[in-house]
Every structure is written in C-alpha cells, then in structure tokens.
Design brief:
alpha+beta, 7-stranded mixed β-sheet, 29 helices
Length: 861
C-alpha cells in the first residue's frame, strides 16, 4: 500500500484524471437512477396509500346492481360506482372549467392538505390544491356552479358505417344551479398531472377538480326517463324504458362510471358485459329495474390514465438515460487506467523484478497496482455518488414540479445506487489495472531486472510516401513516428474523445431536433386561436353569429369546424390510441360557412415541402402511429371509439398517407369519411383566425365573454407553454456537456502527461539543439490534435447512433423527434471537443517549462 501511495504521488495528474471521470460517472449513475427511482417510489407509495384505481369503466348509465356484479368478478378486490360532472365556476369575473367527482370510499381516496372531507348529504366539496393555491381559494369559501341534469334520454340502435348496429343516445338536459362550501383542500393521484377533458390545452392551474359526496348533486332530474322510439301506424312513439324516480323508490343507485381495484386480465370483458348490440337487448336490459344494467362506452387501465401515462413517459426516459450514459464514463476511466498504469508498470519493470526476486509474490504486486485503481474509485465514486444522490434527486423533483403536481410524501433517497456505482467503476478499473500489469508480470524476475529493450521501429506509411515525407517538418516527423510507435495507446487515448463527441452530438443534436420540431409545428398551424365550445355542436346547425350576438365577426376573420373523437387503432394484433380529426377539403371550404382548408397544414416530408391535399377518401396517420402499429400506406386499420354525438363507432379505413406531426399528434381524415363511417359531424373545438390589425388578447377576451364559449386559447400561448414544458431538456444538455468536457480534458491531460514523462530526454535534446519552448509545446499540441481528430472521426457515427436512440426514447404519442443530424451540430460539437483538448494540453505547459535539460540528459544508471 505504501508503494501504491508513492505511485499516486509520482503520477498525481493521471490519478486525478481517473478520479474525475469516475466522479462524473458515479454522479450521473447514482444521482439519476436514485432520483428517478426515488420519484417512482414516491409516486407508487402515494398510489398505494390512496388506493388508486387499477381500471375504470365509463358508462352513459350503470346501476348499483351492475357495480355489485363487477365487484364479484374474478380478480376484483373492490369496485365502486361514481359520477363525473363537468361544469364551470366563476371567480373574480373569470370562468374556470371544473370537474366534480363523487367520493368513492376505499378507492381513489384524496389526501387532505387542509380542512376535512364533506359529510353525507352536506352541500360541501373539497378542491384540488393546485387550483386553490393559484386562485386563493380557502376553506369556508362558497362556490356556485350549474349542472346539466339529464331530463330525458332517447336510446336508439343505428348503423355505424362499416360495423354493425350500435346504441346512440340523444340526451336532453335541464340546468340546475348549486352553491357549495369549500370544506377542504386535497391532493390526489389524479392531479399529479392534471388534464382537463373539456380542454386538453388548459394549464393545470386554469381549471379545478373537486370531490363531493354521492347524492348531493344529481346527474338527472327526479322525473328523468329513458325512452326508445318505435313506429306504430306510421307514427313514431317514445316507449318508456326506465324511470329514474322508480329507481330511487327501489333504492337503486345510478352512476356514470365504475372504478375497480384488482388484477384484471380483460377489462373490456369486465366492463363491456353491459353493452348493447341489438334493439332486442334494449327492452331486455330494462325489463326489471333491479337487474344489473348499464350502457357501456369505454374503459381505461391505470397505465392509460392521463396522469399516470404522462408521468411514466418522462420518468422512463430519464431512467433509460441513467442506465446507459454513465457507462461511457466508466469505460473511459478504465481506458485511462490502462494507459496510466501501463506506463507506470513499464517504468517500474526493474523494481518489480527486484522485489519479486526478494520473495514478494505476484499477488502482492498485482494488489499494489489494482489498489491504485480501487483507491481512485473509492474516492471519486463515493464523492461523485454522494453529490449525485443529494443533488440530482433534488433537481429532478424541482424540474418535475414544473410539469407535475408531486404528491405530499417524503423524497426517497437510497445509498444502494451509490454503492452499486462504485462497485461497477471498481470492477472495470480493477480489470484495467490487471490488464496493465499482466504482460510485465509474466516475465521472469531475472529478465525483468534487465533494462527493457527498445521497441523495434519500422518505416511508417508516411515515410514510404516520399513526396509527402520530404515536405514535412522535423517536428511533424517526430510526432508521426511517436504515434505509430504507440499505436494502441493512441487508439485508447481517442476513446475519451469518442465518448466526449458522442455525448455532445447526442444531447445537443436532440436539442436541435426539438427546436426543428417546434418550427415545423409552428409552420403547420394556419390558425390563431383554438375556440372550445360549451357543448359539442353539429356542423349543419352551427351558427357562430347567433351564439356570439354577431360581435364575434368584429374579431374573427375565419372559423373552421374540426370534428374529432378519441380512437383506438388496431392493426396486425397491435393496439394504439390516438385522436382522429376531420378537416375540410377544398370542396368543403366552398360548401360550408365554417370551413377553411388552410387551417391545419399536413406534410408528407420531414422538411415541410410536400403538402398533403386533402380529398374525401384521405386517411392520414402520423409516422409515430405508423411505426407503433407497423402500418403503412395501403394498409387497412380498424378504428373504434366514441364520437361526440354519443355514439359508439367502429370502422375500417385504408391508410392513404403517412404524415409528419410533432406535437399533440392526431390522425386526420375528411368530413366525408366521418359521414361515411357513421361518425357524427359534431365538434366542440374550432380553429379561428383573427382579422388583420386585431390584437390576440382582445379577441381572446371578447370571445371568452360569450356563454356558449367554454375557453379560448391563442396558438402563441399554447406554443410558449409547450416550449416551457420541454425546457427540461436544456438542463440535461448542460449537465452532460459538462460531463463531456471532463471526459475530453481528463483523457488528453493523461496522455499528454504520459507523453511528457516518456519523451523528457527527447524534448531536452531538442531544447539543447535550439528548440524554443513554444516549438516543443506545439509538437505536443499537434499530436493531441491528431488524436482528437481520430477520436472525432470515430465519435461521429457513435454520436449519431446515440442521437437516434435518444430520439426514440423521447418519442411518445404527444411528441415526435425526427432524429436528423445537422451539419452545424456536427461542426459545433467537433469545435467544442478540440477546444476541450486544447485546454487540457495547455494545463501541462508549466510542466514543460520545468524540464531540467541537465537532469533529463543524464545516462540511465
């Protein structure tokens, strides 16, 4: 061990470079994994403590008998019916969307931040912490809102395009006003990532989520009925199927959804047992009100809940980065160890022979050099891992807080990944140390005590090229001979440069791709505002002039009706969910008042040069969906879902185009396709362009004042919010650029220090012969630049591969990264790498000036 510490003192520069790289590697390895796993554990614990539902089924109607039947199914531990109400509250003259759920004891239990839970039959509610903090709402405040209670629902069976018969519901509502007292403020799993189903573009603090007790708000009026029309003698008569008043008399509760906890193998079978496929089933279902009955729409498992899916998408990406990138640092640390210890062992060859001749075993000699590497790992790994698990989880929590509403639980930090990082680094470094010593320790002690014969030199390739060799200077010839004399070391030295450039290209290239995606997203929008209507409206009956009292025309230059629905795609056994939107063709723009075929621009090439001209038979899917399904142009995909006119739809469509979409991805088709496939031309979203000279803020404020308009968002504001959300990438780029700089500086510093030690006599000879310090320094700089150039040549393809891999990690059904490689990113990263290399070389300038020519030229005794 004493020998090891002497070796460290003699090669302190190399030791520090190894330690620095291991520090960075363990910093990222332990910090990112601990941070990601800690947040995952934090959220998972919160799901468990809140008894978060494993699946949900949505219905137009489901009774308590059906809920009991679901609760008794195999694998179900608990089930509860619940109601969902979408309304708006007015605060300070502004209206805010509000979703109100009924409490389900034992499932999705909210965590109270302040106040208490509402009691049975109490006109009180609890409101989510994010909205309460943003709007200054406190316990005891009163909130008023209106609920559209169902008065009559007409149920019919109708054709659904290419599928069979499907139930269609025609509801009639009656507005009922309520005033509730805020009795508590809460946090729940559903607000980790808040999504407003009525306006997905809304910011988390721009809408409220609340809980009430079941029964204090009624989803239907006391005299509400369900009827089905029949024809008798040429006259259509509504035949009553169900009276909600009769259900109350029998003590039967009615809900709009069912939550389930348990291990459910087939949620469609579990919830879909209460679905209708024929007219005969309508009468049979409602024959006895006490029988289990329901009108099923769709279901979601936990992974598909908006809150869970959004959190998992980002957290899984960060975990994947932690699983791969730190190993680049460990590998470079191993390479530096090989270079450093190989030279140290060569210099101590005679010493090793002597101590072996005196009886010291090979194991002890191996240990002295392996301990050199282990000591660097112990110090650098422990320090880096400690800083990582203390700093990075804090940074991750802080960055997550910009996008998520993190649950009120303690941060989980484990030292396991610190220890694991040190062990991984130690294993690689020990292997490198063993390899460094193995060749010398194979030699017998008597042979080792003799001076090592110099390497045989041969004419290098450049010498054979006489025309070139004659034109090279003396310093260039010396550098070339030195590099080719130590070819393996030169190749190993370039490994750090390879890792540096790969990291720079991967992260900076990803940022460049993201910026490109934002530019293309901006270019595809031919509208200024997104107008969210209060209810879904039909294309044929919609008249914006009526709902806006004609004043909207003062601000709106054009308005486009965009029907859509949430579709489930199926192809070749693969499933994927994505919104399907209908856009107007050029013919539709002439036919309909509210149709502009330029409101959304679709492109079939990555650069946006080939624009798609929409036709009646167009069915275009984005590249992300095409890749996930394995479908392409000409393939037939099955699409199912629930349209805005309360109809279950199912049809087959032939993919006519694959398009490039970047954010808020959707599949696109025409009005005619919707009509042909039985999808109602209903929409609650419209795209608007403002008149020239009209300020966007003025247009937004005016349109929001209309009762029939739920919300208005400018594209510019949505674009800015999206950029802010994606700014998480900027911090990752900064962190890894620092890491890349450490890689390059450590490797070049190490190889330069080794070069100086090896070539001290050579450099001293040159200085005696009249070489100036600047000229000898330039020789080292040139050699390092050549090694850097070699590393860059090898690092370019690796960097591109890393960029493609990172792009695939960040792809979700909300974001698409192209993965292209810009020339200016490559040039910029190469310049940065050369700059890091030059800095490392200059750090050793003082050592070059301290060379004693007399001492260096003394003969070896």
């Amino acid at each position: 061990m004493l020998k090891t510490f002497r070796d460290i003192r003699e090669t302190i520069g190399s030791f520090i470079s190894i330690l620095a790289v291991i520090f960075i590697g363990c910093f990222f390895f332990a910090g990112i994994i601990a941070g990601s796993r800690g947040v995952t554990k934090q959220v998972s614990d919160y799901y468990k403590s809140s008894c978060y539902a494993d699946a949900r089924g949505e219905y137009m109607y489901v009774n308590s008998a059906a809920v009991e039947q679901i609760a008794a199914a195999d694998g179900v531990k608990a089930a509860a019916g619940y109601d969902t109400f979408n309304t708006r509250v007015t605060l300070g003259g502004m209206r805010y969307d509000t979703v109100i759920y009924t409490l389900t004891d034992g499932i999705d239990e909210p965590t109270l931040i302040a106040g208490r839970l509402p009691e049975a039959d109490e006109a009180a509610l609890i409101i989510d912490e994010v909205f309460a903090d943003a709007r200054g709402i406190k316990v005891g405040d009163a909130l008023s809102f209106e609920i559209s209670a169902l008065k009559k629902m007409t149920l019919v069976m109708g054709a659904q395009g290419t599928g069979g018969d499907t139930p269609q519901y025609f509801p009639e509502y009656e507005s009922v006003r309520y005033t509730f007292t805020v009795c508590g403020v809460y946090h729940s799993p559903d607000v980790i990532y808040k999504v407003n189903a009525m306006n997905t573009a809304a910011a988390p603090d721009a809408f409220a989520a609340a809980y009430v007790r079941y029964g204090v708000i009624s989803a239907y009026t006391d005299d509400a009925t369900v009827v089905t029309p029949i024809e008798a003698g040429g006259v259509t008569i509504d035949v009553p199927l169900l009276s909600y008043g009769a259900l109350k008399e029998h003590g039967i509760d009615v809900f709009t959804g069912v939550k389930v906890i348990g291990d459910i193998e087939d949620k469609e079978e579990l919830f879909g047992r209460f679905s209708l496929s024929s007219a005969d089933e309508i009468t049979e279902m409602f024959k006895n009100p006490a029988n289990p009955a329901g009108l099923y729409m769709y279901s979601l498992d936990r992974d598909s809940f908006p809150s869970v899916a959004a959190f998992d998408s980002i957290n899984d990406t960060i975990a994947s980065l932690a699983a791969i990138l730190p190993f680049m640092f460990f590998a470079v640390a191993a390479v530096i160890t090989v270079i450093s210890l190989s030279k140290t062992v060569d210099n101590q060859r005679m010493q090793i022979g002597v101590i072996q001749a005196l009886g010291v075993g090979k194991g002890s000699v191996y240990f002295s050099y392996i301990f050199y590497a282990l000591f660097a790992c112990l110090i650098g790994g422990t320090a880096g891992g400690t800083v990582g698990i203390l700093l990075i989880p804090y940074l991750i929590n802080m960055l997550y807080a910009r996008q998520f509403c993190m649950p009120p639980t303690g941060q989980h930090i484990s030292v396991l990944f610190l220890v694991l990082g040190v062990l991984v680094a130690a294993a690689l470094a020990s292997l490198a140390a063993f390899v460094s010593c193995h060749h010398t320790l194979k030699v017998k002690p008597a042979q080792a005590m003799r001076p090592k014969p110099p390497k045989k030199t041969r004419r290098i390739l450049a010498e054979r090229w006489t025309w070139l060799w004659k034109r090279l200077g003396f310093g260039a010839k010396m550098n070339l001979r030195n590099m080719f004399l130590h070819k393996l070391r030169m190749l190993l030295s370039s490994v750090g440069i390879v890792g540096c450039l790969a990291l720079l290209i991967g992260l900076i290239g990803l940022k460049d791709n993201m910026d490109f995606s934002f530019k293309r997203y901006d270019a595809a929008a031919g509208y200024d505002l997104t107008v969210i209507a209060d209810v879904a409206v039909p294309l044929d009956d919609f008249d914006f002039d009526e709902i806006s009292d004609y004043h909207g025309a003062d601000y709106i230059g054009g308005l486009t009706f965009v029907p859509d629905f949430s579709g489930r795609f199926e192809f070749d056994g693969k499933l994927a969910d994505m919104t399907v939107m209908a856009l107007p063709t050029a013919a539709d723009a002439q036919k309909y008042k509210y149709a502009d075929d330029d409101c959304v621009r679709l492109f079939t090439d990555i650069n946006g040069n080939e624009r798609l001209v929409l036709e009646d038979d167009t069915f275009a899917i984005p590249t992300t969906l095409a890749d996930k399904l394995g479908a392409g142009v000409g393939d037939t995909v099955k699409v199912s879902g629930y349209s805005l006119d309360n109809r279950a739809v199912e049809f087959e469509a032939v993919v006519t185009h694959v398009i490039y979409e970047y954010f808020e991805l959707k599949a696109f088709t025409s009005y005619e396709t919707f009509r042909t496939c039985g999808v109602g031309l209903y929409a609650d979203t419209l795209y608007a362009s403002v008149k020239d000279g009209v300020a966007l803020d003025s247009a937004v404020a005016e349109l929001k004042s209309y009762e029939a308009v739920r919300d208005v968002k400018s594209f510019a504001d949505s674009y800015a919010v999206l950029k802010k959300q994606m700014s998480l990438l900027d911090y990752a780029v900064i962190l890894f650029v620092v890491g890349a700089a450490v890689l390059a500086v450590a490797v070049i510093y190490n190889i330069t220090a080794t070069n100086l030690k090896e070539r001290t006599r050579e450099i001293a000879t040159l200085m005696v012969l009249g070489y100036k310090p600047r000229e000898t320094a330039n020789m080292l700089i040139v050699e390092n630049m050549v090694i850097t150039g070699l590393g860059c040549a090898l690092g370019l393809p690796l960097g591109y591969g890393l960029l493609v891999w990172l792009g695939k990690l960040t792809i979700s059904f909300n974001v698409f990264i192209t993965g292209f490689f810009s020339w200016y990113v490559a040039v910029g990263c190469i310049i940065l790498t050369f700059a890091f290399s030059l800095i490392a070389t200059m750090l050793l300038n003082t050592r070059l000036k301290r060379i004693s020519m007399v001492e260096a030229l003394k003969s070896v005794e």
